[in-house]
């Protein structure tokens, strides 16, 4: 049997896009229902990939790894934008349709954490830092809290997009329907992994960051330097800032405020029209 040659450690592997998905609460599903639930998730993913114009990776070439409660997908770097927009929105919509129209009464709900990253990946072994980072992102407290917030607002998906993937796609204007205002900046940290701390952008399709921010412990970004006060999160409430004559937080809206969910959450609106 011929043993394949090992890659030269000096060589930087080719860049790939990474999508990691993880089903919330999979380990708590009764064993007899695990396989059907996972099969349903696979069908939902197939639909989202097809709708997004992204070819589903195959097991044979190392570009797909079944993790039990989810999967790791390795794709060409050119697909990075499509994994964010439109795939994340299509995946959330497919999960919603499944829950409302297809899910059996006895079947568990399917809610998904996901991450999108880009970096050097060697195939077929995938023994690279980029894969580890993508898995850490999907396991971070920030995206777990985002999924809890998603459930409260009727969404089924929360995604953590790495800073490098965000810069190359959203910030560089490659996404069609999403821009920076749809994302919440946060720090990704994992319990029990103190060495991991990376900036990321959180996305819950259909839920604006102003509603997502209060649920995210690390929404203001990385830990400040000693003696430095943390900066307030963009679009989040600042409890120390009040409009004269009124008690309560001030929300700074950087665009037209017409989202029905936002309007429904505001009991009192005081307009400060002073020139700045």
Summary tags:
276 residues, 7 strands, 19% strand, 7-stranded mixed beta sheet, single chain, Alpha-Beta Plaits, alpha+beta
CATH class: Alpha Beta
CATH fold-type name: Alpha-Beta Plaits
- Silhouette: globular
Helicity range? 25-40%
CATH-scheme architecture: 2-Layer Sandwich
Low-confidence runs of at least 5 consecutive residues: 221-250, 259-268
In total, how many domains does the architecture comprise?
1
Mean pLDDT: 84
Strand content: 15-25%
Written account of the structure:
Helices cover 30% and strands 19% of the residues. The protein contains 8 helices and 7 strands. It has 276 residues and is of the alpha+beta class. The protein starts with 14 loop residues before the first strand and ends in an 11-residue tail after the last helix. The chain has a single domain, classed as Nucleotide cyclase, GGDEF domain (Alpha-Beta Plaits).
Summarize the structure.
By secondary structure, the protein is of the alpha+beta class.
What secondary-structure arrangement, pairings included, does this model have?
Elements: E1 15-23, H1 31-52, E2 64-66, E3 70-76, H2 80-84, H3 87-102, E4 112-120, H4 129-138, H5 141-152, E5 157-162, H6 163-171, E6 184-190, E7 193-203, H7 209-212, H8 260-265
Parallel strand pairs: 4-5
Antiparallel strand pairs: 1-3, 1-4, 2-3, 5-7, 6-7
């Amino acid at each position: 049997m011929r043993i394949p040659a090992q890659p030269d450690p000096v060589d930087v592997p080719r860049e790939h896009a990474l999508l990691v998905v993880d089903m919330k609460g999979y380990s708590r599903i009764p064993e007899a229902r695990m396989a059907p639930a996972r099969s349903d998730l696979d069908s939902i993913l197939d639909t989202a990939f097809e709708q997004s114009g992204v070819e589903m990776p195959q097991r044979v070439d190392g570009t797909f790894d079944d993790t039990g409660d989810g999967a790791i997908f390795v794709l060409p770097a050119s697909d990075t934008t499509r994994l964010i927009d439109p795939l994340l929105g299509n995946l959330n919509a497919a999960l919603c349709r499944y829950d409302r129209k297809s899910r059996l009464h006895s079947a568990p709900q399917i809610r998904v954490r996901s991450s999108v990253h880009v970096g050097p990946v060697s195939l077929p072994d995938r023994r690279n830092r980029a894969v580890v980072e993508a898995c850490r992102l999907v396991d971070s407290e920030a995206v777990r809290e985002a999924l809890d917030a998603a459930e409260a607002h009727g969404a089924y998906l929360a995604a953590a997009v790495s800073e490098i993937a965000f810069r190359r796609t959203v910030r560089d204007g490659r996404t069609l329907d999403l821009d920076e205002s749809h994302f919440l900046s946060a720090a990704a940290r994992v319990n029990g992994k103190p060495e991991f701390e990376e900036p990321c952008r959180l996305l819950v399709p259909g839920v604006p960051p102003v509603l997502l921010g209060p649920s995210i412990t690390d929404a203001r970004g990385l830990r400040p330097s000693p003696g430095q006060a943390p900066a307030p999160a963009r679009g989040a409430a600042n409890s120390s800032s009040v409009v004269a004559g009124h008690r309560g937080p001030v929300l700074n809206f950087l665009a037209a405020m017409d989202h029905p969910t936002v309007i429904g959450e505001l009991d009192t609106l005081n307009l400060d029209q002073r020139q700045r």
